[in-house]
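Hi U.,

Before I forget, here's the chain from the pilot set. I'm dumping it here mostly so it's searchable later in email.
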Amino acid sequence: QVQLVESGGGLVQAGGSLRLSCAASGRTFSSYAMGWFRQAPGKERESVAAISWSSIGTYYADSVKGRFTISRDNAKNMVYLQMNSLKPEDTAVYYCAAVLLSRWNIWTASKDQTYDYWGQGAQVTVSS
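Structure:
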């Protein structure tokens, strides 16, 4: 079992930056691949980024490539999403998700049904 808690959301002007953090419980954090998803009002949840246990494998949605960076610190049971050059269309609730590495690969990283554990979400609002 893994419990996930996001933090770091807030209100920022377009062009600004935010860093989301996700704290994971459990002693086998390095056995899990991690993902970030987001859901804007009236829209379906979409993948943002994902990372393997070793940080070698990463995935980014086209809409955030070059602006967002996912990283993890296995010693601290943390995963991060650094968001730069934010746009109003990045406004959404951002969710952290986890799945055992044995069930994750770069082709399934973007699918929310891949992930078994989810955080409660963090609101990110980008004003124009």
